[in-house]
């Protein structure tokens, strides 16, 4: 059996209605990804605070999978008209051989070595080094599998700086990988916060997989202040908006760790956070930046 994959490049405003229209037209699945993935223009999945589930991508690649027997041209035209888009919108149609889709998806996620003692291991893989600290993660709807440079920067920072017994706040926790890593590295308490209910479910599931206790809370609920380390791997714009809140959650002498920042955004973010923190030199990976700093004396 064969399938037909139809691929569009679409603006952010049309993504939701186009996806719905494609499914109404008979698409078996619709996948939306950042059209700039793997380039310096790449953006993480999250939107601004208060917009859970809305991709923050200027341009997206929309890929719909149809059974080969369908009248694909008519279905594509119908979907575009239903979405209020130009029926001649440029698109590509490819024939795709049937395959084990679950196995193919799993093959995209292999164990990742973060450091000599720290690995990220998908649930379906055996740990390459059973003696290491292994983060068992089930890649799903939530951001954070250890493969993206922003996540790896944070994991490397935690691996180098968690000494034991710290209190950790992971703001924008996604899959929960950073909070889970902190506990497995020796932190005394970790709390994860996110705006997305699906992320909360994924994070709690991953914590159970790792046999660790992490408190996961919605961003609508208040969480403990005076944390030793506050980590936020989100995006530059939300980090700018959240600066006063994150500062309130960090104890005097505590540490802020910020990621999800593109290199050209780092100076602006660092400058704003100097109101509350003594900022360190940035750390770089593949066009992305991690910023850290020490909380100034409060009051």
Tell me about this structure.
Helix content is 28%, strand content 32%. The chain is globular and about 65 Å long. With 299 residues, the chain is an alpha/beta fold. It has two domains: 97 residues, 2-Layer Sandwich (Alpha-Beta Plaits); 187 residues, Vaccinia Virus protein VP39 (Rossmann fold), CATH 3.40.50.150. About 3% of the residues have low confidence. The strands form three sheets. Strands 8, 9, 10, 11, 12, 13, 14 and 15 form an eight-stranded mixed beta sheet that branches. A four-stranded antiparallel beta sheet has the order 2-3-1-4, covered by helices on one side. A three-stranded mixed beta sheet has the order 5-6-7, with helices on one face.
At a glance:
With 299 residues, the protein is of the alpha/beta class. It is built from eight helices and 15 strands.
Low-confidence stretches: 46-54
The number of helical runs is 8
**Beta strand count:** 15
SS-based structural class?
alpha/beta
* SSE order, one letter for each helix or strand: EHEEHEHEEEHEHEHEEHEHEEE
Instruction: Supply the CATH class of the largest domain.
Output: Alpha Beta
Main sheet: strands, sense, barrel: 8 strands, mixed
What share of the residues does DSSP label as strand, in percent?
25-35%
List keywords for this structure.
globular; single chain; Rossmann fold; alpha/beta; 299 residues; 32% strand; 28% helix; Alpha-Beta Plaits
List the helices and strands and how they pair.
Layout: E1 2-11, H1 15-24, E2 29-34, E3 59-67, H2 72-82, E4 91-97, H3 101-107, E5 112-115, E6 118-122, E7 133-137, H4 149-161, E8 167-171, H5 177-184, E9 189-194, H6 197-209, E10 215-218, E11 227-233, H7 236-248, E12 250-262, H8 266-273, E13 277-279, E14 283-285, E15 288-295
Parallel strand pairs: 6-7, 8-9, 8-11, 9-10, 11-12
Antiparallel strand pairs: 1-3, 1-4, 2-3, 5-6, 12-15, 13-15, 14-15
Helix pairs in contact: 1-2, 4-5, 7-8
């Amino acid at each position: 059996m064969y399938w037909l994959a139809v691929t569009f490049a679409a603006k952010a405003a049309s993504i939701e209605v186009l996806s719905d229209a494609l499914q109404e037209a008979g698409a078996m699945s619709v996948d939306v990804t950042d059209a700039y993935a793997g380039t310096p223009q790449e953006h993480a999945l999250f939107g601004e605070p208060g917009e859970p589930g809305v991709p923050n991508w200027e341009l997206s690649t929309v890929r719909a999978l149809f059974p080969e027997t369908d009248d694909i041209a008519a279905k594509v035209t119908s979907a575009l008209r239903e979405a209020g888009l130009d029926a001649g919108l440029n698109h590509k149609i490819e024939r795709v051989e049937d395959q084990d889709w679950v196995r193919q998806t799993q093959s995209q996620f292999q164990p990742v070595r973060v450091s000599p003692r720290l690995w990220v291991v998908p649930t379906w893989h055996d740990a390459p080094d059973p003696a290491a600290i292994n983060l068992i993660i089930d890649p799903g709807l939530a951001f954070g599998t250890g493969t993206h440079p922003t996540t790896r920067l944070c994991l490397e920072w935690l691996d180098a700086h968690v000494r034991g017994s710290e209190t950790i706040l992971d703001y924008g926790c996604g899959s929960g990988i950073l909070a889970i890593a902190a506990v497995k590295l020796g932190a005394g308490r970790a709390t994860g916060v996110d705006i997305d209910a699906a992320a909360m479910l994924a994070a709690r599931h991953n914590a159970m997989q790792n046999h660790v206790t992490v408190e996961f809370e919605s961003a609508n609920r208040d969480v403990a202040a005076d944390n030793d380390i506050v980590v936020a791997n989100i995006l530059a714009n939300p980090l700018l908006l959240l600066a006063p809140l994150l500062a309130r959650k960090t104890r005097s002498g505590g540490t802020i760790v910020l990621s999800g920042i593109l290199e050209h955004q780092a100076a602006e973010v660092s400058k704003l956070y100097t109101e509350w923190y003594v900022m360190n030199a940035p750390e770089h990976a593949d066009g992305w930046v991690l910023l850290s700093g020490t909380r100034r004396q409060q009051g």
